[in-house]
Amino acid sequence: MILPFEIKATSGYARAATLITPHGPINTPAFVVVGTLASVKAMTPEHLRALGAQVIIANTYHLHLQPGEDVIAEAGGLHKFMAWGGPLMTDSGGFQVFSHGAGKEHGVGKIASIFPEETDRGRHLVKKPGKSLVKVNDDGVDFISYLDGSWHRFTPEEVIKIQVKLGADIILPLDECTSPLHDLDYTRSAMERTHRWALRAIEAFERLNSTGQSLFGIVQGGAYETLRQQSAHFISTLPFAGFAIGGSLGKSKQDMYNVLEWTIPNLPQDKPRHLLGIGEIEDIFEAVKRGVDTFDCVTPTRMARTGTLFSYGPPRHRLHILNSRFRNDYSPIDPNCDCYTCRKFSRAYLRHLFSAKEPTAIVLATIHNLSFMERLTAEIRRSITDCKFEELMQKWAFGSPPIGP
Length: 405
Ligand SMILES: [Zn+2]
Description:
Blueprint: E1 5-11, E2 14-21, E3 24-28, E4 30-34, H1 45-50, E5 56-59, H2 60-65, H3 69-74, H4 78-82, E6 88-91, H5 94-100, H6 102-106, H7 120-125, E7 134-136, E8 141-144, E9 151-154, H8 156-166, E10 170-171, H9 184-208, E11 214-219, H10 225-236, E12 242-245, H11 253-263, E13 273-275, H12 281-289, E14 294-297, H13 299-305, E15 308-310, E16 318-320, H14 340-344, H15 347-355, H16 359-385, H17 389-395
Parallel strand pairs: 4-5, 4-14, 5-6, 6-10, 10-11, 11-12, 12-13, 13-14
Antiparallel strand pairs: 1-2, 2-3, 7-8, 8-9, 15-16
Helix pairs in contact: 8-9, 9-10, 10-11, 13-16, 15-16, 16-17
This protein binds zinc ion.
Zinc ion (ZN) is lined by residues 333-334, 337, 339, 341-342, 368, 371.
């Protein structure tokens, strides 16, 4: 089904809109909370509702391996199984295939950190190269389960079938993600394969006649201008309800911004656009500025588990709570934050919990980081409506000259 998507205001390419799903509206730009295994780590649905989370993305690849889509279908679908009544998305598993395949061979993640001065994220994503655990051909992908070493096969049809059983509001077709280190030729053939798979996914989706679900298309093409344009054009001609920008976003943040600039102007104006796997504060502003409506990322929840907490201020709006300077700091993590954690607890207390390895530390830190993200995106939405997006971007110290019409 095509989801109603009402654009309320624009500022250059940035837009504030509402996407209406069968499980409620999503006000965009929106952060999509990652709940890979049908759970947002350390959070209950009650926590998530209280902090204003709008939508969760779970993962087809992981749920297929554990507990299996049939268990979830029998429970009444993903919403019921995880007790989340709000909007849900499922990612197709293409990125997981990538990270266990070419990503593993090349020892890289979404943005390759070839340059030593690149971001923390880049460094974290660089892994030791290993043997690829996937075999990709035109029919689909064979891969080894990371759980028990058994072989599995994903085809575009199978991935749709699994996601129909899971029952999320927004689902994605199988795609082949390339590594930033793949050359033009390989990236082109992977993109073309992704396009053929998109056609098969649509056919499978129509055949299964699933009501209440919407299929988004995925644009591929690595960090190559011609390929991104070509992919955006092709995917736009298909009857998708929205579009996700996937795959390798290049070797640097600038590459990623370029990818967005090559892709988004070639997508339909009246449909939502999702950026897969990006959610650092700086990236959010840059992506929204270029026309991204929703984005998902593990950063806020993953950072929370290691005691890295968002707090407005230089250099990067974050602090590491285990730092000894917080031992006697009785102020909240972020004085501007009105989340449960900041209203009730001090930096000194959080530091104590992390030092003592108390599980509550992770709960409180995750509540804060996700609340921070929700507040930030709400502020971004307001700024677009009030024609103050550029001003807000400057306030967060990531200002750059306006682009777009
Ligand atoms: Zn807080």
